[in-house]
Amino acid sequence: MSTPKKRRSFLLDEEDEQTTIRPVKKVTISGENLLYRTVQTNATKIEDEVRSHSELKKQYKIQLELQNKQASALLNDLHYEFMPPVMGKVYEFVSKTEEIRNNIQFSLDNDGRLSKILNREEIFENWLAFKKNELKDIEFIKSLKKDNPGQYQNILKEGEQQFSPSNSMMEQDYHRDLLYLVLFDKHLTAKDLNKIPGEEYMYTSQLFPQVKVPMEIRYDVIEENEKSITIRKVADSILDDSLLQEIETQYDTLHKPLIKYSFTTYALTFRTRYTIDKTSRIINDAELTIIEDVEHNIQSTCKYSLRKL
Asked: Superkingdom of the source (predicted)?
């Protein structure tokens, strides 16, 4: 049985904003104001039986200024549901840190992708305010502090590192986030949307976190009219004997003790379809699917949809 849906809203009226415990510093830029809603579902199957499932619904305010290659993102609404329900207790904490990390201003590179976070100091200030005012009231944190103080201290240390202005890996963290992976891409800057050049991409495995799978990406036009163009972004995995041996070794360590059956064959599917306004280059809607599979044994599925309101 799934746990009841939780909802957090970060939208405040002016009166509420004056009395809120933690005044979050919000970033703004001049540019086009956009509102997006996303839905992400994740499921893990073992021998075709669903063992875990989650659904995350988010709403973002996006500001885009292509001329100056800058953008900002603000998470302002979030719903979540987990099975088994115990994961929801952890996400109560994670969801609040998501507000901090998705309140950013950043520059774009020549491929339209997030290049540099421009408000690192504000992000860190928001983390410090959250740690001081709200962290102690979260049930998961209360239990952890009482039952496992060492792990509680580790969480604080990880937060300090993640949100530190000197964190050299901060941008890479966003490159793995599906919102930024989909919304900010070559369609923003390509001279010709019918001829977006391919490239190689390193995918970090969800089943085997220590493994990175090289993929060849291509962009195919599948539909076009006067106002919009629909593109399918296809990523084909490059698997050689050495990489497959690494994956099998990780399988034997992480999953075989539970599943019992030996490693079979590995497959990875990565597809994105999105419709773009040809004049503004803004995405109207998008769908992404990632399926990682050790045949007959374990499968991880992620489906992600995005639409402009």
From this structure: Bacteria
- Residue 113, Cα to own-chain centre: how many angstroms? 14
Side chain identity, residue 203: Y
**The dihedral sign for the CA sequence 215, 305, 12, 105:** positive
C-alpha pair distances (Å), 247 with each of 239, 240, 263, 300: 10, 11, 9, 15
Contact 223, 183 (CB under 8 A): no
200 C-beta neighbours (distance < 10 Å), count = 10
Higher-pLDDT residue of 48 and 84 is 48
Of 207, 197, 160, 204, give the one whose Cα is nearest residue 181.
Answer: 204
Question: 277: which strand partners?
Answer: 228
Asked whether the predicted pLDDT for residue 207 surpasses 70, the reply is yes
Lowest-pLDDT range of 26-30, 170-174, 222-226? 26-30
Averaged confidence pLDDT in the chain: 89
Q: How far apart are CA 158 and CA 138, in angstroms?
A: 17
User: Among 152, 106, 91, 103, which residue's Cα sits nearest to residue 127?
Assistant: 103
Pick the closest to residue 21 from 152, 137, 156 (CA basis). Answer: 137
Q: How many CB atoms lie within 10 A of CB 191?
A: 6
What is the 3-class SS of 112-164, one letter each residue?
Answer: CCEEEECCHHHHHHHHHHHHHHCHHHCHHHHHHHHHCHHHHHHHHHHHHHHHC
pLDDT digits (tens, 9 = 90+) for 251-282: 999 999 999 999 999 999 999 999 999 999 99
